[in-house]
Amino acid sequence: MAQHRFKVGDVVTLGRSFIKMPEGPFEVIRLLPSDSADPAYRIKSRSESYERAVREYEIKAA
Predict the structure, then answer these.
(1) CA-CA distance, 52 to 44, in Å (whole number)?
(2) What pTM, to 2 d.p., does this model score?
(3) Which of 8, 32, 50, 52 is least enclosed by beta carbons within 10 angstroms?
(4) How many other C-beta atoms can be found within 10 angstroms of the C-beta atom of residue 31?
(5) How many CA atoms lie within 13 A of 33 on its CB side?
């Protein structure tokens, strides 16, 4: 299992283009356990009322 590169409270942006997504920034809310080589996170934008689950390859440091 890979180590998480980001920690709770880090500010990130989406590295890939997603349809109907706010541009960010997003805050890392939770580190998720991962069964693959790519760690997963829960992130939240201030402009949305809900969290999103993303893999580490989908985000980058803001």
Answers:
(1) 6
(2) 0.84
(3) 50
(4) 15
(5) 1
